[in-house]
Write a structure and sequence with these properties.
It is a single chain. The chain is mainly α and 435 residues long. The chain is 76% helix and 0% strand. It contains 16 helices and no strands. The longest helix is centred in the N-terminal third of the chain and has 33 residues.
């Protein structure tokens, strides 16, 4: 009975449904390899975010230059996302992921070499090179999101999408707990070169996990040119009311709530704790997310998913305001924990909605549109936060971002009140409707 969502007795003419199986998706070997790939890659990515962010701020002491890190990644990720979705739909997924991760591995190796003690580069040159390598990783991300979204739908049955989304997000969030803390401490104890050495090893493990996947040839054979194919994906998204509102909600809430980019300033200038303090703060948000996601394997938020999504985004904004105003390090950790908890509820609901509403042959292109809304809104939000901190100073910038996030949730509620009554079954049966 591998992978069934509920434990039942097949021979009984009146089977008794018992508790949902929280490990249903994990009973698929390929899904476990998928989680391994995501976990080790995210671990490397989060370590890299801490190391690069702290290093650039340490070199420049400029909030705007810190925010530019996110912009350097977002520009290529957005620019290539639609083409990445088209390629993901028509390509064999295993081979595509091998190419993507090879590119990320090469960029990580270059970062390692660049920070070697044998190279003596000027600070301005180091910052420019870091921006360039982050730009290259942004290109890889433009292909990575659509490829993984398409693949996950092929390795578990449809009835396990909510369960697989929970485990996928839990694995991701667990890595985002360990990664920032590890990055901060390794950088603090042994320096940036050692941190990049760890990152290269982790990316290598992710690449090995991909070789455990089966080959999944595409079922989509384009009969039209690329522009018509991309237009088809965009039109599908904008004709699906719940999908387009979910993307818009996340885009604007994360855009104004991207204050995580300013955590290096809190660590260095407010709490005077250095890179290990930064790692603890980034890890606190991820710890809240993992604890909440593990709870959601038993207590699903999908009873009234749209209502719960709006509540979670509102809580996310309130948490941002609270940690921006806090002057106590441990209280700040608590509010960051809450921020991660609320964000994790939002992530689970949005992932499940996306998986349920997207046809198999359009997953890559729909994921690409999603990436343009959501995947890069974090980085653009980081730039917005850096610019706000430059203009308003640190604390007002964070409070402004949290307040705008709450306002976005309120506006969305006013425009989508009819969706708050829908159950998961209603969403599963939903067809495309005009916005």
């Amino acid at each position: 009975m591998q992978g069934k969502l509920f434990s039942v007795t097949d021979s009984d003419p009146n089977p008794v449904i018992v508790k949902p199986d929280p490990f249903a998706a994990l009973r698929y070997k390929e899904f476990r390899s998928f989680l391994g790939m995501r976990f080790f890659f995210t671990l490397a990515y989060q370590m890299q975010a801490v190391v690069i962010g702290y290093h650039i701020y340490d070199l420049t002491h400029d909030a705007l230059k810190l925010g530019l890190v996110g912009l350097c990644e977002a520009i290529p990720a957005i620019g290539i996302a639609l083409y990445g979705g088209y390629i993901a739909d028509k390509s064999e997924k295993r081979g595509l992921l091998i190419k993507i991760f090879t590119g990320v591995w090469l960029a990580s190796v270059l970062m390692l070499i660049m920070t070697s003690k044998y190279l003596h580069l000027k600070e301005d040159i180091i910052v420019l090179i870091m921006y360039g390598l982050v730009f290259c990783i942004g290109i890889a991300r433009g292909f990575f999101g659509p490829a993984t979204f398409s693949l996950m739908a092929k390795i578990v049955p449809k009835e396990l999408y909510p369960n697989s989304a929970t485990w996928n997000s839990s694995s991701w969030q667990l890595a985002t707990i360990i990664g920032p803390v590890a990055g901060g401490f390794v950088n603090y104890l042994w320096g940036i070169t050692a941190a990049y050495g760890f990152i290269v090893v982790l990316v290598s493990i992710s690449l090995i996990c991909i070789f455990n996947f089966k080959k999944h040839p595409s079922t989509y054979v384009p009969k039209e040119n690329i522009f018509h194919s991309l237009k088809e994906g965009i039109q599908f998204v904008f004709k699906t009311k719940m999908m387009v509102w979910a993307m818009s909600l996340d885009l604007f809430s994360v855009f104004f709530g991207g204050a995580v980019a300013l955590l290096p300033m809190f660590a260095k200038d407010v709490f005077h704790l250095g890179s290990y303090g930064l790692g603890m703060m980034r890890g606190a948000a991820s710890l809240g997310a993992v604890v909440t996601m593990l709870a959601m394997t038993r207590f699903s938020p999908m009873g009234r998913p749209w209502r719960n999504l709006l509540i979670a985004v509102t809580g996310f904004g309130l948490s941002i305001i609270c940690y921006g105003l806090s002057k106590n390090f441990y209280l700040t950790l608590f509010f960051l924990f809450l921020e991660g908890s609320f964000d994790s509820v939002s992530v689970i609901i949005r992932q499940t909605i996306m998986q349920l509403l997207t046809p198999d042959e359009m997953r890559g292109r729909v994921s690409a549109v999603n990436s343009m809304f959501i995947g890069s809104s974090n980085e653009i939000g980081e730039f917005e936060s850096g610019l706000s901190a430059k203009l308003l100073t640190l604390v007002p910038a964070v409070v402004f971002g949290g307040s705008m996030t709450i306002a976005i949730a309120g506006i969305t509620w006013l425009k989508t009140r009819s969706l708050t009554k829908l159950s998961l079954q209603d969403i599963n049966e939903q067809t495309t409707k005009p916005v």
